[in-house]
């Protein structure tokens, strides 16, 4: 390849392997990375990306990999999606930054209006914009504490909320997120979640167990907020048993506790609904969003009931780059794309292909313990044959096999035994099926 290919949907939609992966140019780049970038910044697949779009990522050696990760559920509309590219180009020529809290601009307000309209809840809402998911979560907690005048925050087993000090405390898993990075923020309490494959509880039973622990160990009088991911992401794509989330919401509403849904990974068409909360008609007081919001530009948001959001004093919320004009232009174009291209429907179609495919594999492969998820957020949990013992060795081997064959898959899970599927919603059925077959071959070969 002499010229760098342009990304976006016009990139040839094919899996193409022309060197070992990583190839020589990627290896050169990784050598430079190792000499220049802090080791703590690890990489899942050490290639040198030069273009991406549709359902593929192209590397400097000319390999074209099928993308089943979307940069961790970010590029739902695809990489370099046409509307996003146009909007970013137009904005960058007008102005790149003024700081919204110094001199405001329309894009920020238009995104807030759009979020207030789209996020579930038939009440007056307000939004505030930030840069990352963790920053949105931190601000949701700040706002809930300010509103209630209380300190305690309840999070769940298997939760992931980010890597900053407060959100590390809220995240469950030690390695790699927390180990040696403490002390952590106080007043964070963890209670059991709903994990149907492992706890065998109904939604009502799991909720009762969590609520009892909150009442006995934290005390409602101290509690500002309960925060939960509607489907737990890094923890293993754990879809709670039906009724669990509505029961937690009901309890929070009745006890004056701010109910926060962290839709950072599940939001924006990913699960086949615009937000995962739509699925069971769950309505949160406050919702955090990020990943899928802006086609790859860094943006996040906190959206919630006006009386809660407005409780913080002027100047109490913000940030130099928060709601940057290029990111908000990209968000408006991204949200328009989800709507214009009916991507919630597309997410459901993708989900049906994945579930059906692995249901077939599971018939004669008992190490596929569980197939779960919603829409284009799906996972398989791998176990030792004939048991529920987590099989992280197989999981790692399958991810490695897939990478060698030109398919990018991400793993997750408290026990490191979950393969997650988060393809861009712009992927074709053919590419998706080809990639799933590679994953199945990887299971069979190990
Ligand atoms: C990724 C993620 C975060 C953190 O987002 P960053 O942008 O990485 O800070 C928070 N919550 C959930 C549910 C996530 O998946």
Automatic annotation (TrEMBL):
Which InterPro entries does the record associate with it? 4NH2But_aminotransferase_bac, Aminotrans_3, Aminotrans_3_PPA_site, Class-III_PLP-dep_AT, PyrdxlP-dep_Trfase, PyrdxlP-dep_Trfase_major, PyrdxlP-dep_Trfase_small
* Class of this enzyme: transferase
The record's annotation in PROSITE patterns points to: AA_TRANSFER_CLASS_3
Q: By its UniProt entry, which SUPFAM superfamilies does this protein fall under? A: PLP-dependent transferases
**Catalysed reaction(s)?**
4-aminobutanoate + 2-oxoglutarate = succinate semialdehyde + L-glutamate; (S)-3-amino-2-methylpropanoate + 2-oxoglutarate = 2-methyl-3-oxopropanoate + L-glutamate
Q: Which Gene Ontology terms cover its molecular function?
A: (S)-3-amino-2-methylpropionate transaminase activity; 4-aminobutyrate:2-oxoglutarate transaminase activity; identical protein binding; pyridoxal phosphate binding
- Gene Ontology biological-process annotations: gamma-aminobutyric acid metabolic process
Going by the UniProt record, its keywords in alphabetical order are:
Aminotransferase, Pyridoxal phosphate, Transferase
List membrane-spanning regions.
none
- Superkingdom field: Bacteria
Q: Which cofactor does it need?
A: pyridoxal 5'-phosphate
Q: What Enzyme Commission number(s) does the record list for this chain? A: 2.6.1.19, 2.6.1.22
- Pathway(s) it belongs to: Amino-acid degradation; 4-aminobutanoate degradation
What protein family does this chain belong to?
Answer: Belongs to the class-III pyridoxal-phosphate-dependent aminotransferase family.
Name assigned to this protein: (S)-3-amino-2-methylpropionate transaminase
Q: Which organism is it from?
A: Leucobacter weissii
Organismal lineage: Bacteria, Bacillati, Actinomycetota, Actinomycetes, Micrococcales
């Amino acid at each position: 390849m002499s010229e760098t290919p342009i990304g976006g949907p016009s990139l040839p939609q094919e899996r193409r392997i022309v060197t070992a992966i990583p190839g020589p140019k990627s290896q050169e780049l990784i050598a430079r990375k190792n000499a220049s970038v802090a080791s703590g910044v690890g990489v899942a697949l050490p290639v040198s990306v030069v273009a991406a779009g549709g359902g593929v990522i192209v590397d400097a050696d000319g390999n074209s990999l099928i993308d089943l990760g979307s940069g961790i559920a970010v590029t739902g509309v695809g990489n370099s999606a046409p509307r996003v590219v146009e909007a970013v180009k137009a904005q960058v020529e007008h102005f790149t930054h003024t700081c919204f809290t110094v001199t405001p601009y329309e894009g920020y307000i238009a995104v807030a209006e759009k979020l207030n309209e789209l996020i579930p809840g038939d009440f007056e809402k307000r939004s505030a914009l930030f840069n990352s998911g963790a920053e949105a979560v931190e601000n949701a907690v700040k706002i809930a504490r300010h509103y209630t005048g209380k300190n305690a925050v309840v999070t769940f087993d298997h939760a992931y909320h980010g890597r900053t000090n407060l959100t590390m405390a809220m995240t469950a898993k030690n390695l790699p997120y927390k180990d040696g990075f403490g002390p952590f923020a106080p007043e964070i309490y963890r209670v059991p979640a709903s994990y149907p494959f492992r706890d065998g509880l109904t939604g009502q039973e799991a909720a009762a167990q969590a609520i009892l622990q909150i009442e006995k160990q934290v005390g409602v009088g101290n509690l500002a907020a309960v925060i939960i991911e509607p489907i737990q992401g890094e923890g293993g794509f754990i879809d709670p048993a039906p009724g669990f989330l509505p029961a937690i919401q009901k309890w929070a509403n009745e006890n004056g506790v701010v109910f926060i849904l962290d839709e950072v990974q599940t939001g924006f068409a990913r699960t086949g609904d615009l937000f995962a909360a739509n699925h069971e008609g769950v309505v949160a007081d406050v919702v955090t969003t990020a990943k899928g919001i802006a086609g790859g530009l860094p943006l996040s948001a906190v959206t919630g009931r006006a009386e809660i959001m407005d409780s913080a004093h002027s100047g109490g919320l913000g940030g130099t780059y928060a709601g940057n004009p290029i990111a908000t232009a990209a968000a408006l174009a991204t949200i328009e794309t989800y709507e214009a291209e009916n991507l919630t429907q597309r997410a459901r179609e993708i989900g049906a292909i994945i579930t059906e495919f692995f249901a077939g594999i599971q018939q004669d492969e008992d190490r596929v313990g569980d197939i779960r998820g919603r829409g284009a957020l799906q996972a398989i949990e791998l176990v030792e044959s004939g048991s529920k013992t987590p099989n992280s060795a197989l999981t790692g081997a399958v991810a490695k096999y897939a990478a060698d064959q030109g398919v990018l898959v991400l793993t997750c899970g408290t026990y490191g035994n979950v393969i997650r599927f988060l393809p861009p919603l712009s992927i074709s059925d053919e590419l998706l099926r080809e990639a799933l077959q590679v994953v199945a071959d990887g299971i069979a070969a190990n």
